Amino acid sequence: MIPCQSNAWCELEKRFKEAFSNYTECKRAQDKLKKLKMKNDNLDEYLSAFKTLVLHANLDVNDPTNLQTFALGLPQSLADACIKMENPETYEQWRATVQCQQKIYLKTKSLHSEYRTLNPSCTQGQGQRQTSGWVWCCQDSLLFKRVVKR
Question: Does the global pTM surpass 0.70?
Fold first, then answer.
């Protein structure tokens, strides 16, 4: 049915533009999705961009191909850790697992950064002794061992 304020040609033109615009928007979103990569440890930005592009491309976020695209956009070590930890099968499982793994990674990175700040002259090479700071140690079931300068 054609609205009263419009004629048949105007309505046809309007519908044509809507259909063409939707197609090009979908195609652009699909192209961007294939190129999307997580940058600079910014997981929130990646998750938001992925979800937005999937919606604009009218894709099913849980389709195995789209889940693979999601995983390939992550750093390989992060994707591997997620698979080893939970073997996610849905987007929500991937999102939860990747957020958990990213939190662990950032804590570890922060700890290592803090460690270097506390003891910048220390190296952790084989056979080298450390005079102060924290040492990663697996002896006697201890994870950390405080070494005090004497």
Answer: no
